[in-house]
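User: Some background: our group keeps a shared notebook of sequences we're curious about, and every so often someone picks one and asks for a predicted structure to add to the entry. Today it's my turn. The entry only has the sequence so far, pasted here. Could you supply the structure so I can complete it?
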Amino acid sequence: MRRQRGEGETYVVAVAGKVSRTGCSEAALYKHFRDKEEIFVSVLHERAPRFTDALARLPGRVGEGEVAGHLEEVARVGVLFYRGTFPMAASLFASPDLLVAHRKRLGLDGSGPHEVSRSVAAYLAAEQELGRVSPDIDPDAAALLLVGACFHRAFLGLFYAPDPPEGTLRPEGEAEFARETVRALLTGIAPPGGTLPPGP
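Assistant: Of course. Here's the predicted structure to add to the notebook entry:
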């Protein structure tokens, strides 16, 4: 954590790489939080609601509406979530002690980053039972493909910010990315009416 004195005694507090502007001193900040790890979790949760809400809505959407539409929403908000928390997460991995403390705290209630792909996989499995998703796919693998695509998209956006070179972000628009990623996930890459040829 670091601080800089600004106008009106306002401090810029950097916690795990995430800069936020507060109206209190660093010492006063620790009157509300036990340690840097707790501050990190608080900031992370502050930026997570849209993503967690989208995931929480999935069970209630089984058998309703379009599978593609539900997954596209997850993809859109997932990219935003990872883009907003990537700098914090990177700093977390740069601090082994903070990472261990964070992992232990998550373990107390069984939560963690794996819950994202697990939620998507559970939704796909439920839709699979209703015949709305191919019986041939592995829900866990499919969930990882979607979540991984969102993570990589967020990484590229941050790496090339603020002006990504032409062709580095494809599909270019966020809505198009969500739509085409989900379409590729649901239809697969095998030729129409067939399967991929076996390897050598």
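Suggested note for the entry: The longest strand covers residues 11-15. Helices lie at 26-29, 36-46, 49-57, 67-93, 96-108, 114-129, 139-159, 174-187.
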